[in-house]
């Protein structure tokens, strides 16, 4: 299955989807399904699409929460960071790593 075929099948699942959303889903689904040829099966495609939607929503929610924490952290003096504030930075790196891993596939490092 090539990208154009996958995009066509995604557009059937999500009629009226924005071109960027279809392209994003092509990337996410192809990175998350091995072998990619399995996506030619309607059931596999539908299940992968639902699972990826949940994973993407969870990552988006985590990112939003982490952004709020980082904005509060940015208002404090970094020379006086507490251990909890350091952990906020480490969790932010982890969340960013998870989102990056969704987009580039298994080649991302697990932080």
Keywords:
111 residues, mainly alpha, 4 helices, elongated
Short description:
By secondary structure, the protein is mainly α.
What does this protein look like?
The protein is an all-alpha fold and 111 residues long. The chain has four helices and no strands. It has helices at 3-13, 19-32, 42-74, 83-104. Helix 1 (3-13) packs across helix 2 (19-32), helix 2 (19-32) crosses helix 3 (42-74) and helix 3 (42-74) packs antiparallel against helix 4 (83-104). The longest helix has 33 residues, at 42-74. The chain is elongated and about 55 Å long. The two termini are 32 Å apart. The model has no long low-confidence stretch (mean pLDDT 86).
Instruction: Please tell me the overall pLDDT.
Output: 86
Tell me the span between the first and last alpha carbons.
Answer: 32 Å
What structural class do helix, strand and pairing data support?
mainly alpha
Secondary-structure element sequence? HHHH
Number of strands: 0
Q: Based on Cα principal axes, name the global outline.
A: elongated
**Rg estimate, integer Å:** 18 Å
Q: What percentage of amino acids are in beta strands?
A: under 5%
Q: Provide the low-confidence segments as ranges.
A: none
- Total count of helical runs of at least 4 residues: 4
Largest sheet: none
Proportion of helical residues: over 70%
């Amino acid at each position: 299955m090539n990208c154009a075929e996958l995009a066509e099948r995604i557009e059937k699942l999500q009629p009226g989807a924005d071109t960027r959303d279809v392209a994003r889903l092509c990337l996410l689904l192809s990175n998350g399904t091995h072998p990619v040829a399995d996506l030619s099966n309607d059931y596999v495609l539908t299940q992968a699409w639902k699972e990826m939607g949940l994973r993407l929503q969870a990552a988006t929610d985590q990112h939003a929460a982490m952004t709020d924490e980082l904005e509060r952290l940015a208002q404090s003096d970094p020379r006086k960071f507490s251990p909890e504030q350091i952990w906020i930075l480490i969790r932010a790196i982890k969340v960013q790593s998870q989102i990056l891993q969704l987009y580039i596939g298994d080649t991302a490092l697990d932080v």
